[in-house]
Please model this.
Amino acid sequence: MKKLITFIFAFFLCYSVFAQQSLSSRATVKSPEINPDNTVTFRLIAPKAMKVELIGDIFNDPDNGGQGSAQLKEIEGVWTYTTPTPLEPELYFYNFKVDGLKINDPNNVHIIRDVANIFNVFIIGGPRADLYKVNDVPHGTVSRVWYDSPTVGFDRRLTIYTPAGYEQNTKTKYPVFYLMHGAGGDEEAWIALGRTSQILDNLIAQGKAKPMIVVMTNENINQEAAAGESSFGYVQPSMGASSQTKTVPTGIDFIKAFPDIQKFVESNYRTINKKSSRAIGGLSMGGFYTVNVSKENPDTFDYMGVFSAGLRMNDQSKDKDEAQLAIQFSKKPKLYWIGIGKTDFLYSYTKTMRDYFDEQNYPYVYYESEGGHIWRNWRIYLSEFVPLLFK
Amino acid sequence: MKKLITFIFAFFLCYSVFAQQSLSSRATVKSPEINPDNTVTFRLIAPKAMKVELIGDIFNDPDNGGQGSAQLKEIEGVWTYTTPTPLEPELYFYNFKVDGLKINDPNNVHIIRDVANIFNVFIIGGPRADLYKVNDVPHGTVSRVWYDSPTVGFDRRLTIYTPAGYEQNTKTKYPVFYLMHGAGGDEEAWIALGRTSQILDNLIAQGKAKPMIVVMTNENINQEAAAGESSFGYVQPSMGASSQTKTVPTGIDFIKAFPDIQKFVESNYRTINKKSSRAIGGLSMGGFYTVNVSKENPDTFDYMGVFSAGLRMNDQSKDKDEAQLAIQFSKKPKLYWIGIGKTDFLYSYTKTMRDYFDEQNYPYVYYESEGGHIWRNWRIYLSEFVPLLFK
Model:
């Protein structure tokens, strides 16, 4: 042990001349600081700046998609802002803006990417937000796995959560929940922004959810994987289709290619291969796919979770949609769950679909939250939906 | 398909008022741009800045741990710098410094954390650097897995690479390589900074390395996991011990707790449980542990990789070290590999150990590179060491 201490001491002595340190120029202020009363103080050392703003979703401004901003005040080169009131329990995103340039907080390494934006994050603990924390409970395994997709003609990447005990209980089989991102997202979205592994770990540990496998897909069918994780290298992610992707055969979409994922998962994991042990859910574009993949495969899924999305029931495919839904509901799925925020711009889609379901006497569970088309809501919907599965 | 296009169109139409977009304020310049001749252009929109610098390891300045800087020039608010000469094939780290404040490049989402620093990255392709890329080859699985460590009394996290085909070839057993980080690192270091999964995928696909399991440990024995991944929440990582950790029993160090990892891996993965199918390696502090864990367990490992580290052979434990090494080498390990850079501040440690090995006629393979105690070298050592394993 003493030898190690000598080694480490020599290391620190010499380290300052080396790479990492000389790149750092790191300030020593604490930011963010969560105060005992759950107000939060943000700090930035920037003596030459003229104006420093905080931007993020702590302001919860409904007129601005939940976003807002505040100005930091400077004393001797240190810019500071403390929220005037305690923050509600939540996982929050923020950035600084220094003289108009958006930057990350150099004193907070905890960041999450959403499409091409990188946010700093912090959590104010509390009833629901405690689900988003890593707690001292048994943890599942999170794997980035490649599967062969013969329908598109190349290998693609999944993020797969297996619950605590999966490795040890080698005779146990598990139900599977397929979980899908929105436009601009990829197979990293739910695990990073959605806190899927934390929510599952915590709900399972509390006995509120069954142990299950969660398969997080990439629905951008011409991508192998998230930006930076594919053979197209360090491309910049965007909301639209990127030119730097593979080519898929004409007429192939994610709905047609979905069975490749199911086949891979059921061949390589210990799954219960029954309708009553399969769920599918997703947000926005992933909610759209939830509706469509499940009605294309009416014998496959007993649990559907449609988050912030819906069918308009009025376009070209109206007749097909109606016929498929009739078949799907004739097979009495156990749960069709629809969640949306009151100010979500897709509210009318959901409303149209609910009206149609009501008219047809198709049973569903409806969950309406405050707010709009934001991750805060999708974490809530996931936390509400998962306890209802496989019961 | 048409319906999806309508959906996506409605999405884009409405998206601009929502969260992500309003937080972005994103510039549209391309940065970094790798030009056809492998010069690289960096760009930043910062009309109010007085001075913008590029810092990073592209300058390869040996007097400054490989680091250096250059000033960007401004035209109409856009700051630009193009390297005067093509860059050699490599994975490079960089940041901008705007009026003294270190920031990440807002136009490049590809970042890697090293201790508490977050760097932007890009790759110039070429013979060795092509190993660091995600190529169009079969990919292994990368899992974050928790294991029970009874020696310390709590669960801890590992990053585990299983080679392509591991899931499908359910009868095949694999050799295991235990790979350890340096001071300030954690179980994320080798997978992120070391490009372990890319190097392994590529070497295996080229037939240059055997398919193997790679277990990346966390040697900070009082940590459950990397910062942000443990029950202590979003703590800031540091080079020294953090106060926000668990307590381990007196006298317990990583060397004593190592067998818990081996036991977990050999119980839960399809491993070949023989000395000739086990390797151990690490950088800096991890190299120190490679020497010590392997000589404490002389029947366990046939392959040792000591990167940028060594024993001084002159401290309190000299007699014990010598006795243990004598036993270890009497059992004729297949490979003792030592790699270090010419300007590494631990060069003398390695030299002392090599001199002692020479004196004792202990066989080893020595690899000396340019440069110092930097990730560039550790990626090289990994790429050189892995093809020698399990042959």
Observations:
- Residues 249 and 256 of chain A are 11 Å apart (CA to CA).
- The two ends of chain A are 52 Å apart (CA to CA).
- The first strand of chain A starts at residue 33 and ends at 34.
- Chain A touches chain B through 114 residues (CB under 8 Å).
